[in-house]
Amino acid sequence: MRPDLFQAPDYYNLDELLTDEHKMVRDAAREWVKREVSPIIEDYAQKAEFPKQIIKGLADIGAFGPYIPEEYGGAGLDQISYGLIMQEIERGDSGVRSTASVQSSLVMYPIWKYGTEEQRVKYLPKLASGEFMGCFGLTEPDHGSNPGGMITNFKDKGDHYLLNGAKMWISNAPFADIAVVWAKDEAGRIHGLIVERGMEGFTTPETHNKWSLRASATGELIFDNVKVPKENLLPNKSGLGAPLGCLDSARYGIAWGAIGAAMDCYDTALRYSQERIQFDKPIGATQLQQKKLAEMITEITKAQLLTWRLGVLRNEGKATTAQISMAKRNNVDMALTIARDARQMLGGMGITGEYSIMRHMMNLESVVTYEGTHDIHLLITGMDVTGFAAFK
Ligand SMILES: Cc1cc2nc3c(=O)[nH]c(=O)nc-3n(C[C@H](O)[C@H](O)[C@H](O)COP(=O)(O)OP(=O)(O)OC[C@H]3O[C@@H](n4cnc5c(N)ncnc54)[C@H](O)[C@@H]3O)c2cc1C
Fold first, then answer.
1. Do 329 and 276 fall into the same domain?
2. Rounded to whole angstroms, how far apart are CA atoms 167 and 183?
3. Which of 234, 263, 292 represents a domain boundary (last residue)?
4. Using a 6 Å cutoff on CB, does residue 99 contact ligand 1?
5. 52: containing domain
6. C-alpha of 89 from chain center
7. Whole-model pTM above 0.70?
8. Which atom of ligand 1 is nearest to the CA of 167?
9. How far is the CA of 140 from the centre of ligand 1 (A)?
10. 357-367 vs 321-345: helix axis angle to the nearest 10?
11. Which of left, alpha, beta for 388 (phi over 0: left; psi -120 to 50: alpha)?
12. pLDDT tens-digit series, residues 89-138
């Protein structure tokens, strides 16, 4: 892969909306991605392997629990800093961002918000430092967009719970030390349980043959009569709203992350268009290629504004699930369209691993599907504006 020459587009001087802390956090993450991720990521994506050696670096830039209070090992940052970290990591690779998102919003967040003080003290500092890695088990083979139909369940056996069922498509599963698992009790109510690697009957087979998020490890979670200690139940929230609350936080991070992938594709295509000569002039001097670039920077700028505003609302505790859905859907679609156009602009070179674009494009096919598909987010917006749920 070529040297990383990334320069971030900021067409509307949005840096002026950021605090010094935001810029410091973002620049540190940007510098780390250039140094530690860009040089190796293509190789790991080609090998379909997660680069475990970057876990410590991710922890050092505050990517694990950016908004978790410092007393639990988190970085104690605001929601915009969290978003900017996700943006910079996904500028490098969506799979690496997925690992950080899962750790922060899908593992640390529920332990912090729904867990006991003992659970917070036991798990959060180790998750923040990367000593423990976590995964989040909601999706099942027969229940993806409709997680409320899950069949994974646990029974009260007096001194422990007995957990049975299976989860599918779980990021980080093959190497996770703990899993936050969503399962139904005997009354059919959904609860979160912390399941630890090594518990008898708990296995995590890896999912192979992915063309997308190849540098992120994905797997199944299988529970065959797993005895889970009672103190591992997250007691402070139950029902489908509990996992959905985690997804709000993760989807918000994805909205920022997708901007990172889009910026990288735009920046690469812009530079290429200025250097690549055909018919005795740079391809960037042709109207057709300028149309693509002009539309890309317009869409990136709109997404940056939308997402910054969402960050302000999140900081004020006012962002709604539907607002987060809109940003996730819009930004991932925007990034995917830009990746496809940018790939074409590089001609044959666009399909190689010399450039990051094709990897971003393939990664974004997962990002547009997970944490609520493109269509499901449209239905959430539709329900929000009409008052009618069209899911069923
Ligand atoms: C790489 C990767 C990593 C993932 N990581 C995780 C993870 O860490 N943890 C986790 O729990 N899950 C994870 N997922 C699962 C992901 O969230 C699901 O794939 C996603 O929710 C969609 O579910 P599904 O694949 O079963 O598709 P389905 O729900 O079967 O949907 C298939 C199609 O039908 C459409 N559809 C469904 N219902 C409706 C409806 N009512 N009206 C109109 N259209 C509809 C969908 O939009 C989609 O286009 C991951 C997935 C991938 C690909």
1. yes
2. 10
3. 234
4. no
5. 14-129
6. 10
7. yes
8. 11
9. 10
10. 150
11. beta
12. 999 999 999 999 999 999 999 999 999 999 999 999 999 999 999 999 99
